[in-house]
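Changelog-adjacent note: as of this version, every example in the card shows the full chain rather than a window. The one below runs 405 residues end to end.
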Amino acid sequence: MGNSLACFSEKNQATKIRSKSRSSHNRRLPPPPPPCISRSTSRKSDRIYPNSLRIHEDNCDDYNYIREQARVAAALLVQHHQQNGTITQFERSVSLRDPLASSSRRQKKNFMPRNSSSRARSLSDSLPQHLELLHQGTTVEDLKNKHFVLVHGGGFGAWCWYKTTTLLKESGYQVDAIDLTGSGSHFLDSNNITTLSQYVKPLSDFIENLDDNKKVILVGHDIGGACISYVMELYPSKVSAAIFVAAAMLKNGQNILDMFSVQLGLNNLCQRAQIFRYENGKNHPPTAIDYDKSLLKEVLFNQTPAKDVELATMSMRPVPFGPLTEKLSLSTTNYGSIPRFYVKTQDDFAIPSSLQEVMIDSNQPEQVFQIKGSDHSPFLSKPQALHMILVEIFHIPPKMNLKTI
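Full-length structure tokens:
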């Protein structure tokens, strides 16, 4: 009886537990199961492991083993890209990144595949963001030059691009809309602007201050087309492409007034909408051109929503007259070296489609796009269509011999 009770004593029971623990410790544990990589893009399901396979840092053996496997897989993946020429330079931290370092970091970073056999299946899901873009055909050069600079037309300001700016930023592009001198929120009186260089100075200063290895896509509307042409001549190495949206696309030796003279001959409505200002007296040339607010909708915004017409009515300012008379000096080596694209506006009463075709025929761009049902202000009347065209032009490979459509 005493021996039977001794079997259940605390001392003997503890001895048995210790012996059983040592026995199980000596047996080799099976390797942990492979990670389950979620293919979902939503944040709620962005988990590396299901709940039953969660790894905790207090389980040091399992944790260190999988962390080492992740590092090896990352190194193999980087070596694979280098050998195949699909990546040229990247941050050193890519090969050293540890996605299992903490539970908070584990939720933010994708886990690299454990071995080469699973790489082809899960590469696009597991690559870090900049490697994934490279895998999809986007180069580091594309990312660096993914920058649009928007230049408004006469009387407008940076405010007019608010829909385009929003859409481009939501698509991952860097965007800057410029207020030219005396326009938008710029303080100077339009009547005191006498030269094109003075009018374009905010834009030219912006381009000049860009990093030497940075390029932008210039987008010009209306007389903003002449403004971006002026800057293209000055800084050709900093402009990757130029897009003229219902804009003055002039040849060497022409000025904006040449376009206006043709425009007035084609459209009596536009002529009636323009009001010349003579701040220096009637015996001197005009100092600015203003718009009759009662005709704004009919001339510039015939397809634009009423709320945007109201915004424009309150925001538009006179157009300085002096810059309109200055002839452009454009060379083949500078201005001519930059790919140009034209966006036609079909229902435009300010710069009619026929005048746009005259400029296209005399100074042919790489490619021509057309927005159906757009007035002179597609950034307000057809923002989605304009956005799609801008993005499409960004993805056109450089130096392609494209036909006009």
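Structural remarks: Confidence is low (pLDDT under 50) at residues 1-26, 34-61, 87-138, 400-405.
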